Each structure stands twice: as structure tokens, then as C-alpha cells.
Amino acid sequence: MWKDRFCQPIRDLLADDAWLVAEEGYHPREQIVYESIFCLASGYMGSRASAEEGFCRRTLPANYINGVFDRSEAFQRELANTPDWCKLKMYYQCEPIAPEEGNTPEDYLRVLDMQHGLLAKRYVTQAADGRRTKVEILKFLSRAHGWCGGFKVWLTPLNYGGLLEFENIIDATVTNFIDFPRFRVKHIRTTDLRALDGLGCYLGCETRDFKLPVGTAAGVRIVDEQGRDILKSRAFRPYGETACEFVDAYCREGQTICVEKYAAVCTGRDVPESQVAETTRARLQAFVDTGFDAELQAHLAEYARLWHRADLELTGDDRLQKALRFNIFHLMSTPSRTDNRTNIGAKLIHGEEYGGHAFWDTELFLLPFFDYVFPEVARNLVDYRYLLLDKARENAVKNGFRGAKYPWESADTGDEECPAWTIEPDGSCYRCYVADYEHHVTAAVAYGGVHYFELTGDEDFFDREGLEILCETARFWVSRLEYNAEKDRYEICKVTGPDEWHEPVDNNAYTNYLARWNIRKAVEYLALYKKEKPEVYARLAQRIDLAEDEPKRWSEHAEKIYLPDTNGVIEQFEGYFDLADAVIDEWDENNMPLWPKALAEIPKEQRCILKQADVVMLMYLMEHEFSAETQRLNFDYYEKRTLHRSSLSPSIHCLMGLRVGESEHAYQYLCRSAYVDIDNNQRNTREGIHAASAGGTWQCVTLGYCGMSTTDTGELCFTPHLPEQWQRVRYHIRWRGADLRITVTQDGVDVEQENGTQPVIYLCGGERRTARRI
Amino acid sequence: MWKDRFCQPIRDLLADDAWLVAEEGYHPREQIVYESIFCLASGYMGSRASAEEGFCRRTLPANYINGVFDRSEAFQRELANTPDWCKLKMYYQCEPIAPEEGNTPEDYLRVLDMQHGLLAKRYVTQAADGRRTKVEILKFLSRAHGWCGGFKVWLTPLNYGGLLEFENIIDATVTNFIDFPRFRVKHIRTTDLRALDGLGCYLGCETRDFKLPVGTAAGVRIVDEQGRDILKSRAFRPYGETACEFVDAYCREGQTICVEKYAAVCTGRDVPESQVAETTRARLQAFVDTGFDAELQAHLAEYARLWHRADLELTGDDRLQKALRFNIFHLMSTPSRTDNRTNIGAKLIHGEEYGGHAFWDTELFLLPFFDYVFPEVARNLVDYRYLLLDKARENAVKNGFRGAKYPWESADTGDEECPAWTIEPDGSCYRCYVADYEHHVTAAVAYGGVHYFELTGDEDFFDREGLEILCETARFWVSRLEYNAEKDRYEICKVTGPDEWHEPVDNNAYTNYLARWNIRKAVEYLALYKKEKPEVYARLAQRIDLAEDEPKRWSEHAEKIYLPDTNGVIEQFEGYFDLADAVIDEWDENNMPLWPKALAEIPKEQRCILKQADVVMLMYLMEHEFSAETQRLNFDYYEKRTLHRSSLSPSIHCLMGLRVGESEHAYQYLCRSAYVDIDNNQRNTREGIHAASAGGTWQCVTLGYCGMSTTDTGELCFTPHLPEQWQRVRYHIRWRGADLRITVTQDGVDVEQENGTQPVIYLCGGERRTARRI
């Protein structure tokens, strides 16, 4: 087992191989990918797995903090790379002890322990003069106190001894897009560097635009095998934007010494600005006082609790089992449990792509996982949209509409962050129309809120926030509709659906359906509230200045929205069927579809080929609007024309494939979605973890293969169809205040209830059952 | 020839191979050595030859400015590493175009053109994807305007084309001792980063201790083969302590584009502090307005003038010829022609070792070259000591003496910079007694001033400065002497001579002789001035509060200074002959002497073995005090016991070897001295160029082999003894206002006079001749 290759203290902590993702052998050019794969997140911040030892040439070190954004010279506000506390340089007589390009270490092994939220590494370096050093490192970001992180280094000079030197570093020279010169931006300004006597060093900085202060403090201890402090000397060195503490210790040949690095972070989001420095110090002091091992134990207890709720046990495919946990691990580690002013970026907090912005991915791909598994986090995510509702209102007005129009990309302020212009690596600039035309995100926000409410029954949310969002988004759509007098119908012209390769188009089926759903749902809930909760209705009506006849007028609009013919293949947008047509007939070595050669000479927007399938997505979300036959027909038609160049596409094709009986295809899509980052199968994992894939993968297994759903009346329902090779799937959900353990086998479904006052009823095979108490 | 491997514009500029020092093939671990060897200096600043392209792992980039020192956390004030303006990163689609560890470029050739003060480089990189790019770079620091430097890059994408991207960088993250963590110190603080619209970017900083402002500005142009501006876009990016200007340009496959980088520097030493930023900008503007090529021509004209005066042509040993020029090139390029508040560091301005401090090396090893070749620079160097005379007076008082005691290591303030404590790489600390006991530097300063005066006849200096230095240093020695009543003699106890392996000792022969010389010379000149220039005498007497009888008292002291017996071997210090004795009987593969094994177990200070020979040095300086036989005897004795672990030692052994007829040994010492850096034969060239070796080497050839000297009456005199293999030596000196061309052959000496009103008379072979007019 991998853990057996580590020293005893690490071996004692690590899980079995089933829970480990491993990097075997050192490949300098792959480090940047592993930095994402092995990124640790604490719910407060994320720390990419750049080498603690420094000296890597190809690296994207990053410490992102949930909610800390900045724009400066960038095209958009983006998660700001904050000071890197994760460096500890090690030397013997000025020569670094580190893996380096051109000096490949021996027996290099790094493992991510997903069960425990740990990152462990070991190798032996050989210096030019033949000195060999064994290095083993264990890193964690405390899930118990998300602002704390640290690591231990066990260092063994194998064939020499003497004074080892270390630099405890906090590095604020960091930028975003460090290896992309055109986009490289520095988001922080260093304001303060100082020694924290006896504790370590401190670096204060602030974001450049909003001057949000960020404090980082770090200290080291060096102990021998008996735990005795052997740190010899300590000197603080301010290097401009790098706080450095130089320390040293003697180590005999063959002796192992242990260097512990402690770090703590605080921002002006956590405490009043004037208290940031002192709180940072206090957090570091608390971490040091608690001690590395005790804090680690608290962290492990938190991960045990998290996994008890979130694990998805799969018997029958070990590789897929690991990938499922990999996706869940990163997904559940990212969002805050307490902060409803932050959301989840499209690449989680694991990379810089998309600036850490929330997209519609949150509502349609991520929320179902949180709704079922961590509803308290889901509440934060829906709160986030409510807290930015005013900005969405401004955004509607700015674009000439009413109600609330949510931005395509959302950071901390709720402003539209999607840039109007983009530059390609070859230097070509192009006008990016996404923010102008891709409006379906607003329906997704409404959809997410309604489904959160319907799944969790959180009336507090819906009364105070959800219904308001639903109405204001409905209002947006009503104002967005254009009346076609000739045809006596409402249309949405110049719009872009999820398939961004055709933009803008008229009457995109996906958008029109979603707009109608949004308006209808608002009208429906308003009617219900008017009747059942008149005081909530009245308060809302006043808040949003709702005219008495407005719901009726909305309804009239909704019912006249143009929708394409649903007998047969649904046209993705008006005119789609006129495009140059061909089906995909070639796949690459990874089984990814290739552009049909027949269409090679035709511009993208004049071809039928899709980036991702709007209609398939639509049918997934609006199952009851389409007959089973229509769904099968459309899946067949569009699948042959979809290149899946969005990581959102495969999971939906898995779910729809299952629904229409294409189980073999479905399984391929499941794999594509599940392995996207663990296998780096889109070659862009260096930029972060695909959040939507992670959430979509969870949906594939639970909502797809296990057939979990809710009825119109809000009852939990199961219609499982496990693949032959799966013996069992087991997972937990929180359902109306109770923790349920769901076990799906080839023989059926078993639901066990761990707690809660009311017995949980569920449907299975048309049968109504009561969950077994355990 | 090497120049034929370059593109036409570079080829047209470069000298023939005889003037070039070449680095063939790229060796990452040797870069740091070539950074010293290829360092360019302008008299204003020095720019180490770190790769312009960046991305080197092992590099010590440095831009030192004469007179810009700082201490901060260092042990001593040191030449502060100021912002590196010498970087221009180049990319194609984010992939650097640069030599890197693990990506060795093809056909790599770099040459230092000593004749023209140019550095040229060429190679072909191959990227991982097979793209090949030819790169050729030509760099210079303008000798016409020393604050300007720049380079041109000719870039040819050999098998691809597209948008090339560049970063014009001013990097203020620089530190001293960047690869020596324990000593690494940052000396500057960035205060200002901004774009200079249409011109480039600006970075303002200040030294951390004295807040001396340093401005750096840099701009780029990109032109095609026809010289047309093809720069496409320009964006300023402030990265904390790095000012960066991102620029790009299209380049077709096989096309060559040329990127010109212009930089200019200004400090608070040049102009009032408030004008630094504006002056920096104006200097850059002037450089850009002049144009790269026109400034380069002005630079070449200056080097032509410098070499006309400084070249040392040697026919008969091409390798040695190149080494002689190499030493002269770096030596003459370093000091300012106009600034008498700076001196020359022991490693020139080419590296960080010894902090850029002036030692006695200046007076005894460097001054003779400048006295004869560039007396205007020599004047600055002696002025420097006068300007710091008050500090030397303070230093005397602080140490309990009178008069002026010069510091062992001298930076800008004149304070003693030699630290009292030192740490070795293995972590051991030791008390460094050099500043406490090594007093002979004070005599060296007096000696340098007197010889400058006697060689140049610069009465202005001696009247206003030199005599005052001479008297105050004499006063120091008088106060330093201790009277031994028992023996009725004056002694200097607890003192260290040049041989630092024996410290402190009593009555070091070298020190006692120099002290006597210093006092005697003061008395002698005071007597002369009293008689010949009574007004100067009177003014001085008042200035230094000279009592009427003081010279007489000095003289009484001087004549009673204890000196060892000069019949036979002179004892280096009292008790030296009692030390454990053995002679060197083994040499390493480089012919460097090794410790005699017989003494292996005995502590260094109890062994007769010397770092460098005091007595040999003494006899070189005080020829007339010792008989020829005594000199021969002592050379023989001490040579067998000297390890030459100071780079000051070989040149003196060459000079003395010649004098005593050991011509074969002498030639070996000449080579050791001449090749010390060009061959990196002490393995420490990475830290800078050995100034004393450079100056000593010049002395070996001119004062040694060509036998140039001056008589007591101030007449130029030649007693040449060329080695058989040398056909001719030719060089210039400036002698009493006239430029002389000296040609020494196996047949004799020819002196030609280029200018001057008075005919120059010289002695040769006992004959008095008149220089031929040319």
C-alpha cells in the first residue's frame, strides 16, 4: 500500500489506497496539474499543492480565500491570489533540498488522502556533490479552523550531517496568471512585514482595488525524534514583498528532524479592518498553542463528520469509486459553512480560470448535491443570490429590462464580471457577447431557489428570499419578451442558449422553456402565498411594488411564449434546421467526438454541431414537458451533433442517456464526467477542478443510477437502474431534518433513518415505504 | 572567427577573436561565473551578465551603482543591489523563449568584446512542441553616458510564426546574496511604479537605511528588418516590486525582428532627491531620442579612447595577451572619471563579495595602474581618502589613538565596515579581529597618496590633501607605537600583517617598516614644505594643530622603531621562527601549493605556513632598504612557506621573483595572477573580479618585465627583462602631461611622445634619452 512507503507518523494517519490519489515519480511539467488535483480547501480558503520546498519553475502557487476578489488591471474581478504561506525552503550549505527540473528526486510519491483531507509526499534528493536527503511532508488545511494550515517536514540527511537551514516564507509577490504574461495581474499590495517575536513572521497586504486587508502569519518549530526543540537560531528578514524567517538546526547523518510550519490567515471580511493584524497573530498563536497534532486531530474529526454525510460508496468499480470520492472531496471542501456572501467558482477554489466566479453551474450542477447532502451550505448558496438581488435589479435596468437579471459571471459585488472583450493566445481580440445575450442564468437562479425550497422545505428561505427572487426574475423575463403581433406570440430574440457556438439566435428552445417555467412558477407561488401566507404575500408585494394584476399579466405573457413543435426533434432555435448538417463520425483516442470533416470549411455558427446540447439539457430539467419518445428522439439526434466541449455536457448526457435507455452511452458519459480532473482528460485541470462535472457526477449516480427524485407532492422516490457491474451504491442524504442512509443494490433500495422525529416515507417501485430506523 | 557566427549587425560591430572572451555551449551551473566574467561596467554602474531572457535558476543578477551602499540586516554596508533593468522576457503563446535548465539551447555562443565593451550572445532554442527560435543579443552599458544601458535582441522564429510577446521588466525584488540564505539582504524599498507614457516604465526605490532614492526607467522598441516600428500593443503592469511593460508584435516564420531595450538610472547622488524621478525619465528620453545605434557609436568612441591609453600589447603569448586585456578591461571600466566620493571594491563592481569595499588593495595594487595610465581617475581615488579623513580621525580616537586611522574596509561613509563577527557556512561563528589589529592599511593610504604625487607631480593634490593625510597617518603611527624601556625601542604589539593567518602578533616586520616609512615621509615632506612652501605648511599646521616640535618628536619615534635583523632571513614577526616549520612539498593539479602534511595536526597560527608573504611584499615596496642578497634569500625562504590563499600574493611574487632572478617562478605567478578570473582558477569568480590581481598583473608586465620605475629624482627609468617568448610589449602611460608610447622588445626600449610641451627624458641602461616625438 502507498502508505507503507511513508515514515511511521504519516503511515499512522493515512488511509488505505482506495482513498488515496497518487502521483508516482516526479515530472516537472505535470506539477502544475497536480497542484489542482491535490489542492486542499478548508471552506475558508484553498491552497494549491505547489511544492512546499519552492524552486519549481513551472508552478501556479495560489492561496485563494473565499470572497476575496480584486480586479486591478484584469478583465474582471477575480479571486485574488493572496500571500503564499506554503513555502519552507530548505538548504544545506546554501544548496536547496528540493525536487528541481534537471534534478529528479528518487522514489517520489505524493498522495492525496481524500478521507482525511491530507496531502503527503516523500522522496530522496541527491545533490550534485552526492549528498542524499530523505524528505517526507504532510500538509493539511484545518477543517476545524479554516484559516489555519500547516505542514510537517521530516528530513533525514542520509549520508551527511551538519547545519540545515530553512526559510519560513510568506510570499506576497504572487500574481494571478503567473505563466500567462498577457493576463498576469497582481491583486495585492504589501503593507506590512514584521517579525512576531518568538512566534514567526507576519505579512500584511490589501487588495489593490477595495483595499481589503489580508493578514498572513507563519511560524516554525524544529524538533528531534524525541520532540525536543532543536531550533538553533532565528532571524527575521524582510524582502520587500516576502516575509522570511531564517532558522537553522543541526542534524546528524541518518537522524530525522521534523520541521513544523504553522500558518494562519485573516481578512477584513472576518473582522473589522483594524483588527486584522492582531487577529491573524492570535489565530497563529492559537494554532501553535494547540499544537500541530492536536489541530490535526480536530481536522480529522471534521472530515469524519463530512464523509459520514457525503460519501458515495460504490461496490463494483474501484476506479470509479475513487473518482466519485475525488469529485465529492473537492466539492464539499470548498464552500464555507457559515458565509452566505460567497458562492462556488466554476473551478472551485482550486484554480484561477473563470476568476472564481459563480455561473449557472451553481444552481443546476452543484446545488442538488448540497440540497440533499449539506442543505446548510445550499442555504448559503441561495442566500448569496438573494444578497445580490439588488445588483441583479440594477443589472436589469442597465440592460433596459425590469425585475432582476443575474450576471452571467458573479463575484463578490454581483456586478456582471463577464468581459465584453477577450484576447486569444494568438493575439486576436474578439467581442464576447455572452453577457449581452446569454440570459438563461437568471432562470437558473430562480430554478435553484425553488428546488432548494422544494427539496428542503426551508420556508424561512422561501418566505423571505426565494419568492422575491422568483418574482423579480419572472419580471425580468416578462420584460425581456417581445411580442410578435403577426403570430400573436411572445418571443425571445437575439439570445444565446447554453450552446455558445450559436450566438445570438432567436427563440432558443432552452431559454424560452426556462423563461416560461420561471414566470409560471412565480405566478403559481404568488397565488399559493396569497392564499396561504397572505402576510408574506403582502410584505413581498410592498417590497417589490407588485401591482394587483401583475401576476395575471405575467401569466398571459407566459402562456403566449413561442415554443417549438415538440413532436419529433425540437429545433434548438429558429433556423437551426437550416444549418449545414452532418453527424459526428470520428472520435479521438480518448473517445472524444471530432468535428465532422464534411463541415470543415463552414464557419462554426453555420454548422449544426454543438458545444453542448441545449435541448438535452432542457429535457433533463423539464422532464414532464416531453414524452418519453420525444426525449429518446432528441437525445439520439443531438448526441450525434454534440462535441461536449463544455464539461457541463457529459453528466447531463449520462442522466438523459439513462432516461432514454442508452445505458452504454450513459456510462461513457458518467466516466467522462467523473474522470475529467482525476485523469485531466480535458487537459485543463491545471486551471482548477471542474465544479459542474463534480456536481453533475454526483447527480448521475444518485439521481440517475439510483433513480432518486421527488414527486410533485414532495415525496422522496427511487427508481434505480444500476449497471450490471455495480453491486451496491450507498450514500446519505439529509431529508427534512433527518439523516438517511440509502443503499441501492441490484435487488432494490433500502432507506435507513439515523435520526429525526418524524418517520420518513419514500416511494419505491410504486410502493410507499417507511425508512427503517437505525 | 567567433564573430562570423553572428548576424550581420552584430558581426559588423565585433572585434576579432583576439579581443573576445567566449563562452561556448550552455552550462546552467556555470552561468553564475560568466555573470562576473561578462559583467559590463560604465564607470557609473556595473551590470552583471545574467541572462536577459530570465528563467535562469542559478543566477546572481546585479546592477551595482558606484557609491550606492546600504546595510539594513547585513553585517556591513555593502554595494546595494539596485533594480535589475536588464530583463526582457520573451514568449510565444506563454512559453518562454529562453535557455533554461533542462532545455539546453543549440549553438550557444556568448562573447565579451573587450575592445568595444560589448556583450553578444546567440543560440537557437527548441521548445517542447518543436518550435525553434534563433536569438541574438547585443548588450552595452554606455561609456558615454554611464547611467544608460541597453540591448538589442534579434529574434527569428525558424519554423513557426505568430504573435511574440515580451515583458520589459525592471525588477526591484533583487537582493544581495540571493543564493546565500543566511546572508541574503534586501537593500532597497520600492516607492513608485508607473508607466512613462509612450516611453516605457519607471520604478522608483530608495535604499533602506539612508533613503537614497534610485530611479530606473526602461523602454522598448520593436522593429522589423527595414527598421519599421512593428510594436502592436503596450500595457503597463505593476507587479509590486516589479515594473513590467507587456508588449507584442507579429513575426512571420523565418522573419527576424529586433527588440531594442533602453534603460536609464539616476540616484540621489547625481541630482537633488526631488529630481531623481524626472532626471531618470529625461535620461531615458535622451537615450531613446539619440537612438540605440547612435548611443552605441558614442560608446565605441569612448572605448577607443580608453584603449588607446590603456592597452597592453603583448606579442609572443596570445593567451596571456587576452588575459592582460581582460584584467585591464574590467579595471578601467569600473571607476568613475568624475566622482571622487567613490573608490574601487576588492571585486570591482562585478560581484557582491566584500561589499564593494575599498581595501589597501586600492593603494598598493590598483593605484599604480591609474597613476600611470589614468591619473585623473587616480586623483579621484586619492581624493576619496582625503574626503573621508575626518572619519579616519574619528576612527583613530575611537580606538584610542591620535591622527587618522583608516578603516580596513571602507564604503561610502568611511566607517569601519569590517565586521567583528563572521559566520561560516557550517554555522560556526567566529570573532573577526581584522579591524582590531590589521593596521597597515593606514600606511598604505599614505603610501598611495605619496606615490600618486611623486608619479604625477600633482601638487594641487599634495598641497591640499596629500600632505595632510601623510601627517595625520604619521600621527596615528606615533600614537600607535609603544615604548619598550628595557630595550629603548618603539614597538607595535598585537598587530596583524597582510598574512592574516597569524593574528595578532608583536612587531610584524611589514607593519613596523611601513609605519617608519610613513612617519619619516611625513617629517621629510614637512621639512621640505616648511622651506619651499611655507604658506602651505602654515595652513596645514593650523588645520591639524601641528606643534612646532612635533615633526622632531615623530622623527625620534620613527628612528627607534624596532626592526628585525636584515642580515639573512627577516623574521616576519617576533616569534615566527619558533613556529612549527616545514616547507611546501606538494602542489595540486592546478599547481597550487598544498599544506605540508607534516604540519597537518598543528593549529594554523602555530605553523610557519603563510596565507601571503609579508616580508616579500615589504621588500617589493621598500626595495632600497634591503640588499639584493637579502631579497633573494627571503624570497626563497618565504616562497616555500606561502600558500597564496590571497589573490594579492601571486603578482607580488612575480614582481619579486623577477627582481631576485627567479624568472621561471615569476612567470608562473604572472599567469596565476593574470588568469585568476578568466580561468576562474580560485573558483570564486562568481563573486566578482579580483581587482588586486588585475592591478597586480598590470604591474607585473610594466613595472616587472618592462622594468619601468622612477628614480629618486622623479625620472622615468627602464630596466627591461622580457621572457624569451615575448617579442614585444607596447603600452601607453601619461607622464607629466604627455602621452607616451612605450615599446619594449628583446632589443631594448623605445619611448615615443605623442603630445605635451616639454620633451620627456628617460633613463635606460644607465643612458639618459629623450622620447621620440610622433
Uncertain segments of chain A are: none
Radius of gyration of chain A: 27 Å
Strand order, biggest sheet of chain A? 1-9-10-11-12-19-16-15-14
Shape of chain A: globular
What percent of the residues of chain A sit in helical stretches (DSSP H or I)? 25-40%
Largest interface: A-B, 44 and 44 residues
What's the quaternary structure here? homodimer
How would a textbook summarize the main sheet of chain A? 9 strands, antiparallel
Number of strands of chain A: 33
Characterise this structure:
Two copies of one chain form a homodimer. Chain A has 774 residues and is α+β, with helices and mostly antiparallel strands. In chain A, the strands form eight sheets. In chain A, strands 1-9-10-11-12-19-16-15-14 form a nine-stranded antiparallel sheet. Chain A has a five-stranded antiparallel sheet with strand order 8-7-13-18-17, with no helix packed on it. In chain A, a hairpin with a 3-residue loop joins strand 14 and strand 15. In chain A, helix 10 packs across helix 12 (509-532) and helix 11 packs across helix 12. The mean pLDDT of chain A is 96. Chain A binds chain B through residues 28-29, 55, 57, 73, 89, 91, 93-94, 100-102, 128, 162-163, 165, 167, 172-173, 175, 179-182, 184-186, 188-190, 232, 235, 237-242, 246, 248, 250, 425-427, and chain B through 28-29, 55, 57, 73, 89, 91, 93-94, 100-102, 128, 162-163, 165, 167, 172-173, 175, 179-182, 184-186, 188-190, 232, 235, 237-242, 246, 248, 250, 425-427.
